[in-house]
Amino acid sequence: MAGMGKVDYARLQQFVDKVESSLGGDQVDQFMEACAKELAARLLAKVVKRTPVGVYPHRVGGTLRRGWTAEKQQDVTSYVNSLQVTKTGGSYQIEIVNPVEYASYVEFGHRTRNHKGWVEGKFMLTISEQEIRDAAPAILERKLQRKLGEAFK
Question: Is residue 25 classed exposed, middle or buried when 0-12, 13-18 and 19+ CB atoms within 10 A define those classes?
Fold first, then answer.
């Protein structure tokens, strides 16, 4: 056919090889785990900021806030990187837990001690989860673009 150029299959194969080396085999799992950890770290940063700290007559609390990182004195990203990512089918999951016994009462609210009133929940995890759900597509798209950009170098 007139006007058709030659196809350089060698260059095409080089490109395919680069993409496969960037996202082939175990690389996909590693990339997906990195995505899960990035979203978890962002979630945890938000929820820690939203978690109230009690102020008492002779001390300042913080047990509930420290509970998000299992009382470890490390930043959120380091803590999340220490967590295991579980793959079930095509889903990658990280479990974020606050083991402090009253965490759910602060999250969702509770009756007062005399059972005549109600203390509103803070919804620190619920609100943070929704914000991450809303932001996740853009975050993951940027991360994927950076990863694919490596194949074009």
Answer: exposed
pTM of the model: 0.80
Please enumerate in sequence order all residues whose Cβ is within 8 A of that of 54, keeping only pairs 6 or more positions apart, or say none: 60, 61, 62, 64
Cβ contacts of 83 within 8 Å, gap of 6 or more:
37, 40, 94, 95, 96
Q: Bridge-partner residues for 110, per DSSP?
A: 119
Per-residue pLDDT of the chain (153 residues; tens, 9 = 90+): 455 555 566 766 776 677 666 666 677 888 899 999 999 999 999 999 999 999 889 998 999 999 999 877 778 999 999 999 999 988 999 999 999 999 999 999 999 999 999 999 999 999 999 999 999 999 999 998 888 887 666
Q: What is the dihedral of CA 49, 55, 59, 65, to 10 degrees?
A: -30
> Which of 153, 152, 148, 149 minimizes the C-alpha distance to 23?
148
CA distances from 53 to 8, 12, 48, 64, 66 (A): 63, 58, 10, 7, 10
